[in-house]
Amino acid sequence: MDFKAEISTDLEHVTRLADELTEEGKLRVLVGVGGDGTAAELVNRTKEGTPITLLPAGNENLLARHLFLGSTPESLAETIAHGRVIHLDAGRATGRIFLLMASCGLDAEVVRRVHELQNRACEIAQLS
To answer: Could you give the CA distance from residue 43 to residue 37 in angstroms, rounded to a whole number?
Structure first.
């Protein structure tokens, strides 16, 4: 099966194009290269019903693991060609959709601190 792909790192462009192609019935799938945060960002930037899949490249890839998505271009092509569309339950908090989990208390504070430390480490790495 042949696929026509457009590659972009401009999220505004990607979401506009995905919305247009979804309305026209011409979008087979929007592929995000990343992890759980990438999936959340795409879901929050596209219209409901936009088909999305991932080429896992994130830290934990919980969603990709749950959906048994492979991490190679070949497995991605196989998923696109022969996979099926599933509908996931989602939640909304502070105006954003989430696909995996929401937490509060100690769990949420640990996640917040780890994220903060990762951001600091990235900033330091960019400075050096």
So the answer is: 10
